[in-house]
Design a protein that fits this description.
With 542 residues, the protein is an alpha/beta fold. Helices cover 25% and strands 18% of the residues. Strands 2, 3, 10, 11, 12, 13, 14, 22 and 23 form a nine-stranded mixed sheet that branches. A hairpin with a 6-residue loop joins strand 18 and strand 19.
């Protein structure tokens, strides 16, 4: 659900459930030319891209267009060459970070400066609290990562601000009222053979997207539920199509990747229909455009438009926390130890690291160890994985800002062994902040495979990809409701519950998208939890 979440899902039909009019669809048909990828491309300005051994048909293709009259596999095969990783000096830094003093007393220490940590830190600092924020990476933002590319910026992390109705106020500035937002709009076209197949495919897509939001009385996997309902629908409305196994297999493969794009899963059979996610009103796919998602953090930290920052907030980057020690004795504070051995003390600590990091480190991170209720929550909630491969072209050759791919069984069989993962790459989108960049989306195990490839990329491309699964400070992108959700309905609330001393004072608090019972997997959900935990520590107003 959501993010794009900590919103990363792609903006095509497979990730725009309520407004599925935003994608161009391509189908590759072996031995038969498909729609030419030439719309809006100046003739003769881009050489034909050679990806793998060229076939005789490749050699006959028009050299003035990227791929000529050939099939979409050649575009997707370029993705098997992941290219270079962006160097850290390309990261957009958010203002000057002040240096924390280990001898200084703080009211609160915040571990992590992603969306939740930044919201919590800034809220407390604006209230006059002395706050130390410790971030393991060399930048602010967490799973939001804006980098310069081409004529603008691209988002390697969260992509979408998912509603107009959720605003972040910064004194006289409200994100809701800023002009940086541009909605995703594009044409919806389908090229899959017979006209009746096209019409039925569109009809079934809309039907499946509608019913995937339903919650049947008996929880089951989303894959099983949608498959059963669609087959019933086809038998009732289009009985002649029920024996068209190839068509139905193509459709269900597409819808499987729809769910994966939402949840970051490998299969929609991993996702439960028993979801607590609640969608806020307004447009779910708002873009920060050329401003970049980093602007959210500039505003929260009061550094937007060269703002002065927050005087009672100290920030230390490149500072990995290795231990959080606390006691139920009300007279003692919390001690936070970093990798270099430095210790900091405060009245309390807000831990905002990702669920993936908690899964990997919670036993060594907390002293005393977490209670069984929290351990169970960490174990039973699942962490999803969405990846991006960004290609920067010298000229824009696509005609609409999102593309989806429908694969046939023949297409899959023609893929070489090290290309099989491409079968699950089903959508791409134009970067809203860098119009000559095309973002290809991957999910689950497909992302793990794509990030493990090391073949050099052709010189006429610039490419970057994401590494959220191998990043030791994220270990994934965002959480989702797995098949265990009905058995552990309070897991997210249990994870969010603070640890208190014997007098009931909160000492160790938890924030982050995975702790939000209804808006998990989104940036706005993460921000909400930062506000929530800051509010626990501030006097209640009447």
């Amino acid at each position: 659900m959501g993010i794009g979440s900590a919103g990363i899902g792609g903006p095509v039909c497979s990730t725009v459930p309520r407004d599925c009019i935003g994608a161009t669809w391509w189908r590759s048909v072996q031995g038969e030319p498909v729609k030419r990828l030439t719309a809006g491309h100046p003739q003769g300005t881009t050489r034909k891209h050679q990806c793998g051994p060229p076939s005789s048909r490749d050699r006959q293709a028009d050299p003035s267009v990227p791929y000529g009259d050939t099939d979409i596999r050649l575009i997707l095969r370029t993705l098997r060459i992941p290219g270079v990783r962006l160097s850290t000096n390309l990261c957009v830094e958010l203002g000057a970070a002040s240096v924390g003093d280990s001898s200084k007393d703080y009211d609160t220490i915040v571990v992590g400066l992603g969306a939740a940590g930044t919201a919590a830190s800034s809220t407390l600092a604006r209230a006059g609290r002395r706050v130390l924020a410790l971030e393991a990476q060399d930048r602010v933002g967490g799973r939001v990562h804006t980098v310069p590319l081409g004529d603008g910026v691209v988002e390697l992390g969260a992509e979408w601000w998912q509603t107009k109705t959720f605003s972040v106020k910064n004194d006289s500035t409200s994100i809701k009222s800023m002009t940086m937002f541009l909605s995703l709009t594009s044409m919806f076209r389908l090229s899959i053979g017979r006209e009746e197949d096209k019409a039925l495919m569109i009809e079934l897509i809309f039907y499946a997207l509608k019913i995937r939001d339903e919650s049947p009385a008996t929880p089951q996997s989303e894959g099983q539920y949608v498959t059963d309902r669609v087959l019933e629908y086809v038998k009732d409305k289009h009985p002649s199509a029920i024996d068209n196994k190839e068509f139905l297999n193509e459709f269900f493969h597409l819808m499987d990747t729809v769910a994966d794009a939402y949840e970051g899963t490998t299969s929609w059979y991993e996702v439960s229909t028993d979801s607590r996610y609640e969608e806020l009103g307004g447009n779910q796919y708002m873009s920060w455009h050329t401003y970049g998602y980093k602007t959210l953090f500039d505003i929260l930290l009061n550094t937007y438009n060269n703002g002065p920052g927050l005087p009672t907030l100290d920030i230390k980057l490149n500072t990995e926390v290795t231990a959080v020690s606390w006691s139920q004795d009300p007279t003692r504070g919390v001690t936070v130890t970093t990798k270099d051995g430095t210790t900091y003390t405060a009245d309390n600590v807000i831990v905002t690291v990702s669920l993936g990091v908690l899964k990997e480190r919670h036993e060594s991170l907390f002293s005393p160890q977490l209670n069984q209720k929290k351990k169970t929550a960490i174990d039973k909630i699942s962490m999803g994985l969405v990846g991006k491969i960004v290609l920067l072209y010298s000229q824009k050759w696509w005609s609409s800002n999102s593309i989806s791919f429908i694969w046939t069984s023949d297409d899959e069989r023609l893929l070489a062994g090290d290309e099989k993962w491409l079968y699950n790459v089903t959508n791409a989108s134009e970067s809203m902040g860098s119009p000559k960049a095309l973002v290809f989306w991957t999910c689950g195990n497909t992302t793990k495979v794509s990030t493990s490839l090391t073949v050099p990329f052709p010189h006429h491309f610039y490419v970057c990809r994401t590494y959220w699964n191998t990043n030791p400070f994220t270990r994934g992108t965002y959480s989702y409701d797995n098949l265990l959700t009905p058995q552990y309905p309070t897991a997210r609330s249990d994870l969010a519950e603070p640890l208190t001393d014997s007098s009931g004072n909160p000492r160790v608090l938890f924030a982050g998208e995975a702790t939000n019972p209804t808006h998990y997997s989104t940036v706005h959900g993460a921000v909400e939890t930062g506000y929530r935990e800051a509010a626990r520590l501030l006097p209640k107003s009447n």
